[in-house]
Each structure stands twice: as structure tokens, then as C-alpha cells.
Amino acid sequence: MAKTKTSKIRTRIDALRAVIEKECAAPTCRATGSCRHEGEKEAARHMLGRLLGKLKDAAGDEAEERARVWADIYKRGYDSHGNTYFQGSKYRSGQSMKDRAAGIRMDIKVARKAGQSPLVQDDHPGLVSQALETYRFDPIGEAPAEIKFGVRIGRGYGSIEIDIKSIPREWGWVAEEVTDYQGEKVTRWHRSQALKDLEAELKALGEAYNADHGSNIMTDCFAQAFYVFVEYDDPEMLEWRAEYERKRRAGRA
Length: 253
Hints:
Blueprint: H1 2-21, H2 27-32, H3 38-76, E1 84-87, H4 97-116, H5 129-134, H6 139-142, E2 148-153, E3 159-165, H7 169-172, E4 173-179, E5 185-191, H8 193-207, E6 211-215, E7 227-231, H9 235-252
Parallel strand pairs: 3-7
Antiparallel strand pairs: 1-6, 2-3, 4-5
Helix pairs in contact: 1-3
């Protein structure tokens, strides 16, 4: 309905412009040197101004409506065609990967400091309850002190990788003794709930700097600003790496 109304306005605008721009060919007007149709042209000019104003308002309404629709799509996370959309709270258009990685690194540092320092000092007992609730459970801040974090830009500048190192075995892993396909007893390592929570929190922290402008896995369309990966080794992989390093050093000796 709105498009039809706008189309009619444009048609009237074209007609009025034709009246204004048309050269008077009436013999009497040419003979006297004064066009008696000038009043009609002046009226057309006034009417044209009003219609152009309406058209401008209509365009503004359409832009506002489009903005509202897109805001709803980003809030919902997908459109009617199955494309996914989101925008992290710290996402900035045009921000470099270096700045994003630096922001993630700083957020981890702040969380660690908040988790390892007492929030309420004896001489400052009046800390508001809202702040206490904010840090009551923070997997990053409450993770064991020996855990180390690293943030780096992935190859091709399309990802940011968050590394977790020096994970205490008793804190981060649950051992399960199983029989493999050869009938031998082996140990399978499963993440503890604490490690799962830490991984999820780091992923969410990184995604706060990210945005998706319409990805669709069904059509192999990937429109994220970048990808966030949280990486770490289980005890079996750590032992393999240590053994490999020992052999490598022995071979060089």
C-alpha cells in the first residue's frame, strides 16, 4: 500500500514538472509578451514543493522501518530465509584483528585480576551487591592460578585463537579406563565441568567482539567478522608432545 501511494506521488510530481517546464505557445501570450498562464505554473511550483516534502518524509519512514526490521532480525538471530545474524556487544565495524585480539587479552586479564583479588576489603565493606553478583561466579577469574592464557590471531587473519595451558590434571580432567578395539586397556580423558565452563566463558568473551552478517551453512555462506577457537591439550596429548620433544633433543645430542 505504501509503495502504491509513493508511486502515485511520483507520477504527480512528473506531471507538475512538465507543467512548470513547458514553454507557453499560446498566440495571445506571445503577442502581449506576458504569459497569462504564469499563475498556473506558480501554483504547480507550490504543489511540487509540498509533494517533494511528502516524498522525503515517506523515504524517511521507509528507512526507519528498514532499521527496525534489521534490529529485530539481529535480536532474533536469523531472518526468514534461514540466514543467521548477531552482533556482539563489543563489536565495532572496521576494527582491526589486532585490536580485537588486544581487547580479548585485556578482558581475560581483568577477569583474572578480579577473580584472584578479594572484592570486599575490610576497609571498604560497602561494595554494592550488584557488583558482588557480577563476580560471584566467573570461570575465568576462579580458574586455578597456574593456568595460563594466550590470545593470538590465526593464520589468514580470519580467526582468533585462545589457548589454555598448564591445566591441572585433577581440576580439568576426568579419567575413564576403557578397552580399545585391540582389547587393550587405555585411558580416555574427559573434560571436567569446570573446564567446560571455562571454555564456554572464553568463547563468549571472544564472540563479544564478533558479528555475523548473514551466514547460511546450507549454502556455504560464511559472513562472520572472524572465528573464535578455544584450544588446549588433554593429558594424553601433553605426554605425547613431551615424549616427542625428548626424542627430538636426543637425536640432536
